[in-house]
Queue: 2 jobs
Job 1
Amino acid sequence: MNTMATPATEPTDYPPPTTRPLAVPAPSGAWQGVSWFAFTLGAVTYLFTVWYAVGITVGERYFLYTAALFSLYGCLGVSKVVRDRQEGIPVTALFYGLSFVAALAPFVLVSYNMLFDSTLPTSSRTLIGMAFALTAYATLGIAKNERDKACVRPTALGGPRS
């Protein structure tokens, strides 16, 4: 009887590596600027609107701030796992699923709060929701830009080949 444990095997459900070249062109300055502008506009609008909202409780204010931070982290996680899978880098199903939960749960919680539990005027609720969504979307763009900048090689920019 063999008492030695068999080594764990890697899951085989990962997609094959793409044929995408390792060197990618750097994102344009315009795209990087728009991504950071959208993030800044959304974040400042969200923070300002929640801070100066009339009739909001301290607990609700802290809830909205915490949900925004959790959502940004979740969006970064989704950006990572989706791109890793596209590039054939192994990602566990648990991390893949939890990344989507971390990104979507704050949207569900804030939406429910804005629709059913909030005493804010409709205009404030709408502004908070749009700023929340804009910030989350811009986070995905910034994450893509940073990853692309990390993959830039001189050959992708038309520089000398080594």
Job 2
Amino acid sequence: MKKSFLSVFTMVLLTCMILVGCKSEAKKADKTADKVTTETATKKPDDAAKKANATDPDPDTPKTSFEFDKMEHDFGDIDEGDKVNTVFSFKNTGNEPLIISSAKGSCGCTVPKWPKEPIPPGASGEIQVEFNSKNKPGKQTKTVTIHANTDPNPTRLTIKAQVAKDPNKPEKTAATGAPQIKTAN
């Protein structure tokens, strides 16, 4: 009986020591997490982190303005699968350099390219937009959102197209989603 009591006592003692050790490690981890959170909240991010997460320009950057030759482009009737392009030309109408920090399409089918360097006052630039109509039959309206040191910010450009369905593309059935091949009677 003494032997089993010692075995049980030893097991309980070891379990208590393990639990106390784990609790101590958890407290250390919590303190480390709190310290990192506090440091992150009080530190300014470095330039690389700013650029990686930037969509809005630095609020301390002087504001300017720009005007586009058009705010909307209609590609008209195109075939499904066509890749079409347009150019939105603009002029910096303000007194400060224009800095475009980002231009993003409303979906992956709309891809803008914009000047990365500052545009001086009075100078012009272009935003090129490609629209890929693959798997986009029907009426399409997409936007490009531009973040720049302008007021108001952001600016939105619009593209439109009427995409004719590819007649050779198999239709999907509603029940299974599997392609259904049409046969001539």
